[in-house]
User: Fold this.
Amino acid sequence: MGICRSQFEIFAQLTKHKGWKYVLKNGKEFSSVDVTLSLDLRRKHKCQVKQCYANCQTIAVYDRRWTYFEGSALSEGLPIPVDHAWLVGRSNQLVDPTWFRKKNPITGIEYFGLSIPPDFIIKRWMETGYYEPMLHHYVADRMGEGKRGKV
Assistant:
């Protein structure tokens, strides 16, 4: 079990909320990133630094070859997992168009999260009018806890 998954285990134990268990049961771990594809997508979609949710939601909605994932990621230069979004292709390759850049690259070494379908992303966009982290909303929706449940 990786560090990112362990973070969700700790949340589940501390809060006793069923949402964390949902993420643990349905989430997926990744440990390798396709750097070439990450850089290609970054260039093609003009992805911005520190805009992982906007970058990845936009790509996943407009290019259905990619599945949007959200959860925690760990990088070489950061000792703790951070909330993050990334994409996974049909061949199960992870791409991270936000962290991977030619100048000052951040290298993701571990990812754990949940896939969120494009229809849910579009629904949230229509409700809010902006990009935002979706994980809490999606889990609450899956668990029937209404619009703004907590994980």
Notes: Strands lie at 28-30, 66-75, 82-89, 94-95, 108-116. The chain has one domain: 3-142. The mean pLDDT is 90.
